[in-house]
């Protein structure tokens, strides 16, 4: 059986709402490439939207060079000017910088050594596994009764 592979930078996994009202799923890379055309993320759960926005802020800072102020390469005044220049650009982020950034790092959820946003040691250190429903308030988990929603651990929903 081949190893699982899911590159989050390329696979459509982030629901976005475009300025024209069209909704589509995009990978992280495409979200930054089309950021100037996107109105909002279309994530239904506020914690998921918050987590995605935090990641996108960090990615945008790295791609745009706005993270350079943290290591002293840019003064606060230079940072503010760079930010204003970027916001005035109708073309969005530099596509070369976006591709360079995403090509440099691993974005695969199932990478054997460095899975994206996961600690591979958990597979060996955690003896008892739990379903995704444990993370979402209001969903039944384990053998609990489904009072508030029809979700079960045997049929996980995002």
Structure, explained:
The protein is α+β, with helices and mostly antiparallel strands and 158 residues long. It folds into 2 domains: 14-116, no CATH class; 128-158, no CATH class. Helices cover 33% and strands 8% of the residues. The chain is built from 5 helices and 3 strands. Strands 2-1-3 form a 3-stranded antiparallel sheet. Strand 1 (14-18) and strand 2 (23-26) form a beta hairpin. Helix 2 crosses helix 4 (95-104). It is globular and about 50 Å long.
Shape: globular
Share of β-strand residues: 5-15%
Strand order of the largest sheet: 2-1-3
What gap, in angstroms, lies between the N and C termini? 25 Å
Helix residue percentage: 25-40%
Q: Give helix and strand order, one letter per element, not per position.
A: EEHEHHHH
- The oligomeric state of the chains shown is single chain
Structure classification: alpha+beta
For the biggest sheet, the summary is: 3 strands, antiparallel
Task: Kindly summarize this structure in a few lines.
The protein is α+β, with helices and mostly antiparallel strands. The protein contains five helices and three strands.
Based on the model shown, name its key terms.
3 strands; 2 domains; 158 residues; globular
Break the fold down into its secondary structure elements and pairings:
Elements: E1 14-18, E2 23-26, H1 28-33, E3 38-41, H2 46-64, H3 76-88, H4 95-104, H5 122-125
Antiparallel strand pairs: 1-2, 1-3
Pfam families: CRISPR_Cse1
């Amino acid at each position: 059986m081949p190893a699982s592979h899911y590159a989050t930078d390329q696979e459509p996994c982030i629901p976005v709402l475009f300025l024209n009202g069209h909704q589509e799923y995009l990978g992280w890379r495409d979200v930054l490439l089309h950021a100037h055309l996107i109105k909002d993320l279309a994530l239904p759960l506020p914690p998921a939207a918050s987590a995605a926005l935090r990641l996108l802020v960090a990615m945008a800072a790295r791609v745009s060079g706005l993270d350079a102020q943290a290591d002293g390469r840019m003064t606060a005044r230079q940072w503010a000017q760079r930010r204003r220049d970027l916001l005035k650009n109708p073309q969005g982020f530099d596509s070369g910088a976006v591709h360079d950034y995403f090509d440099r790092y691993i974005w695969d959820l199932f990478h054997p050594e460095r899975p994206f946003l996961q600690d591979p040691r958990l597979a060996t250190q955690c003896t008892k596994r739990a379903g995704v429903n444990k993370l979402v308030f209001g969903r039944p988990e384990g053998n609990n009764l489904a009072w508030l929603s029809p979700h079960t651990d045997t049929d996980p929903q995002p």
